[in-house]
Write a structure and sequence with these properties.
The complex is a heterodimer of chains A (about 575) and B (about 190). With about 575 residues, chain A is α/β, with parallel strands linked by helices. Chain A folds into four domains: about 220 residues, 3-Layer(aba) Sandwich (Rossmann fold); about 100 residues, Rossmann fold (3-Layer(aba) Sandwich); about 160 residues, Thiamin diphosphate (ThDP)-binding fold, Pyr/PP domains (Rossmann fold); about 55 residues, Alpha-Beta Plaits. Chain A has a seven-stranded mixed β-sheet with strand order 3-2-4-5-7-6-12. In chain A, strands 14-15-16-18-17 form a five-stranded parallel β-sheet, sandwiched between helices. In chain A, strands 9-11-10-13 form a four-stranded mixed β-sheet, sandwiched between helices. The mean pLDDT of chain A is about 95. Chain B is of the alpha/beta class and about 190 residues long. Chain B has one domain: Pyruvate-ferredoxin Oxidoreductase, domain 3. In chain B, strands 2-3-1-4-5-6 form a six-stranded mixed β-sheet. In chain B, strand 4, helix 2 and strand 5 form a beta-alpha-beta unit. In chain B, about 60% of the residues are buried. Classes of the chains: A alpha/beta (about 575), B alpha/beta (about 190). Chain B: InterPro entries: IorB_Oxidoreductase, Pyrv/ketoisovalerate_OxRed_cat, Pyrv_flavodox_OxRed_cen.
């Protein structure tokens, strides 16, 4: 039976069919659905971890204990997990361990672009790259087999267009491989120098064996057509190439680290001109150049952003498709906080109070853009808390009194919590605001330690921010209704002025969270009272706009949070009375 | 067949691409569907691609090659017009959703889009899908109302479209969506 499947869904199916028993992840676009789909298979024990490092650590434990395991994350998540990654390469695994990492060329929803293949090289572990959903499924199985055969973790590198495109997949039954026996083997699994010096030698031997494997493995495939043009490619780039130049010859690399140097040499020697068409970094190209061959790569193809058919068409065929003339000067449509989003209130007040705001990663990063413009900095998950302390270390307590850190609930558990402990320990005075919407919203509403549910929907303890704050020595913790602007302003003023660290928790569930009922009415503009001052536009609600004279509320979008009513000084916003 | 869906995040572009993908599979075609989610879900501009035929490689439609541009909002139709091939079909919801630069008064919403579309060498089909969706029972069915219009303008059997919707839309919302489809289909 064939099914139209998202690449990520096919990875999950592959895990199921390959007899995987444990799956862990921290959600991150474009990788999130891998674990969401795995959670539908009750044969696999799956969980959200608080961050990618913990997810990998759980995964290493489970693989060493004998269960085939899949750990998933996005590219930036692998930075967080890099520490255990480097060492699990040395210890090896017991049952198969597959690390699924989704890169995001063009940064559709990421703070940077990274090429995960570098981590494969860095950690000396193999990297597989599927180009469609069928391959996603197949490579999961193959990856787990390689993992067990060579006693190594394996990286499955996805990209946005593989993770988030759907194509047809042939479904098979699950192969119950069961649990492997667990062997007490401290010289292998205790990463102390005396053991790891010996393991290091084994890692390099393993890599040599993997290089031989790369020569014969079926997923590194040569397809000869006309030998005038040869294209060495992998992942989604293979598809772009196939669409543009049907009659060229292809070396499609399913394993992109280590590379099959003999096969590459054979291919280059058979073709007149060889292009290396790879997304992001010139990793394959550089390896080929180091072998002494001249190929065409990043001097004609871009190093950043997604590749495309257009790019290849222009470079190879010198062709540009005729397109309809673009419409000039159209307004952009940047993403915005949803109508009714509870983050809007805190950001409105932070802007009003002219505070320096260390921001973090999540929906609420959007508070940094017009018209709210309420964030000074954003670096990575969890960084806001440490950075606020850094502001104080650099510029002193008076600056700390004009600064706050803002962080979401999931992001706080991810890695903000350690920054908060650092503030207390180092006698800082920062104010940290946890924007608690009781869900991991940006990635599509995943559970986390604030939500009271696990990935599989079971009840679990809600870990309490206030109690946590108190237990690590924060005496000032305040909980505020995020829609109550007056109270928010008062509390933020008090806490930033306090000469000790404080924790403010602004609470309201995400407006889009399933099962949440709001007692909201729809609001309209009282045309008699509106004098067109535009103050209500400053909250950046997509449902309010200005018609040239007065404000207008789009009732199709308004969810009735009433924030605009509290901002208006002329009582021009009122509940809609249905006729 | 290359279809590009242009929408505002939250309007149901992902479900639409899923319906079209299922349709293609049901009629025995190779098919690829691609969309980007994440930041773009939050009211931003979104684009999704559906390609089907005997053999489909790239999951992304190339500019100038779309047979159909299905736009859920006027401005988004204009933004992605380059994807449409000459004499391709633009089906566009005439609804207007102001983007943030318009809301803040930084830019004006272009009011000449209708005229501009009319002047292109394309098959231009404006549809008041919001009104259709409202009378079908939910403003969320704008996407399926547009699918109704698309179905009417395609050579694929109506029953196949209905089957694809049944295969894709959750039971709870099925009736509303089938109503919206039917109203879109019956539109002149």
């Amino acid at each position: 039976m064939k099914k139209l499947m998202l690449g990520n869904e096919a990875v999950a199916r592959g895990a199921y069919e390959a007899g995987v028993l444990v799956a862990t992840a921290y959600p991150g676009t474009p990788s999130t659905e891998v674990t969401e789909y795995i959670a539908n298979y009750s044969d696999i024990k799956s969980q959200w971890s608080v961050n990618e490092k913990v997810a990998l650590e759980v995964g290493i434990g489970s693989a060493i204990a004998g269960a085939r395991t899949v750990v998933s994350m996005k590219h930036v998540g692998l930075n967080v997990a890099a520490d255990p990654l480097m060492t699990v390469s040395y210890t090896g695994i017991n049952a198969g361990l597959l690390i699924v990492v989704a890169d995001d060329p063009s940064m559709h929803s990421s703070q940077n672009e990274q090429d995960t293949r570098y981590y494969g090289i860095f950690a000396k572990i193999p990297v597989l790259e599927p180009s469609n959903s069928q391959e996603c499924k197949d490579y999961v199985k193959l990856g787990l087999e390689i993992s067990e055969k060579y006693d190594t973790p394996v990286i499955l590198r996805l990209g946005t267009r593989v993770s988030h495109s759907q194509s047809l997949v042939e479904l098979k039954e699950r192969n119950e491989v069961g649990l492997k026996s667990y062997d007490y083997n401290p010289s292998k699994y205790i990463s102390a120098p005396i053991n790891m010096r010996k393991r290091r030698v084994l890692v390099d031997e393993r890599l040599l064996n993997l290089e031989k494997e790369a020569e014969s493995i079926s997923i590194n495939e040569i397809e000869y057509n006309s030998k005038k043009i040869g294209i060495i490619t992998s992942g989604v780039a293979y598809n772009y190439a196939k669409d543009v130049v049907l009659d060229a010859s292809f070396l499609k690399l399913g394993m992109t680290y280590p590379l099959p140097t003999n096969k590459i040499a054979e291919f280059i020697n058979s073709c007149d001109t060889v292009y290396v068409f790879e997304e992001l970094e010139p990793i394959t190209e550089q390896k080929i150049r180091s072998m002494g061959y001249n190929v065409i790569g990043k001097e004609v193809f871009p190093i950043s952003g997604e590749l495309s058919c257009e790019i290849l068409r222009k470079v190879l065929l010198n062709e540009i498709k005729e397109v309809l003339p673009p419409f000039e000067g159209l307004p952009q449509r940047p993403p915005v906080l949803c109508p009714g989003c509870h983050h809007r209130g805190p950001f409105y007040i932070l802007k009003k109070l002219k505070l320096h705001v260390a921001g973090d990663i999540g929906c609420y990063t959007l508070g940094g853009f017009a018209p709210l413009n309420a964030i000074d900095t954003t670096i990575c998950m969890g960084a806001s808390v440490g950075m606020a302390h850094g502001f104080e270390q650099a510029r002193g307590i008076d600056f700390a009194k004009k600064s706050v850190a803002v962080i979401g609930d999931s992001t706080f558990w991810h890695s903000g919590v350690s920054g908060l402990i650092d503030i207390v320990y180092n006698k800082g005075h920062s104010t940290v605001i946890i924007l608690d919407n009781s869900v991991t919203a940006m990635t599509g509403h995943q559970e986390n330690p604030s939500t009271g549910k696990t990935l599989s929907g079971e009840d679990t303890p809600v870990i309490d921010f206030e109690a946590l704050g108190k237990s690590i020595g924060i005496r000032r913790t305040r909980v505020v209704d995020a829609y109550d602007l007056m109270e928010l302003e008062k509390v933020i003023k008090e806490e930033t002025n306090a000469e000790e660290p404080s924790l403010i928790i602004t609470k309201r569930p995400c407006i889009l969270k399933k099962g949440i009922k709001f007692d909201f009415k729809t609001y309209v503009i009282d045309e008699n009272n509106c004098n067109g001052c535009k103050l209500c536009l400053k909250i950046g609600c997509p449902a309010i706009s200005f018609d040239g004279k007065i404000a207008r509320i789009n009732t199709a979008l308004c969810v009735g949070c009433g924030l605009c009513k509290d901002v208006c000084k002329f009582s021009a916003i009122d509940i809609e009375v249905k006729q | 067949m290359n279809i590009v869906i242009a929408a505002v995040g939250g309007q149901g572009a992902v479900l639409t691409s899923k319906i079209l993908g299922t349709l293609a599979q049901n009629i025995g075609k190779d098919v690829k569907v691609s969309e980007v989610h994440g930041m773009s879900q939050r009211g931003g501009s979104v684009i999704a691609y559906v390609r089907f035929g005997d053999n489909v490689y790239s999951p992304v439609v190339e500019k100038g090659t779309a047979d159909i541009l299905l736009a859920f909002e006027m401005l988004e139709g204009a933004r992605y017009i380059e994807y449409l091939k000459e004499n391709g079909t633009l089906i566009v919801n005439t609804q207007r959703i102001n983007p943030m630069p318009v809301i803040t008064g930084e830019m004006m919403y272009p009011d000449d889009l209708d005229d501009k579309f009319k002047n292109l060498s394309i098959n231009y089909i404006p549809v008041d899908a919001l009104s259709i969706a409202k009378s079908a029972g939910t403003i969320k069915a704008v996407n399926v109302a547009l699918i109704g219009v698309l179905a009417k303008n395609s050579s694929i059997e109506k029953d196949e479209w209905i089957k694809a919707i049944k295969d894709t839309v959750p039971e709870k919302f099925l009736e509303l969506n089938l109503n919206a489809f039917e109203m879109g289909y019956r539109l002149k």
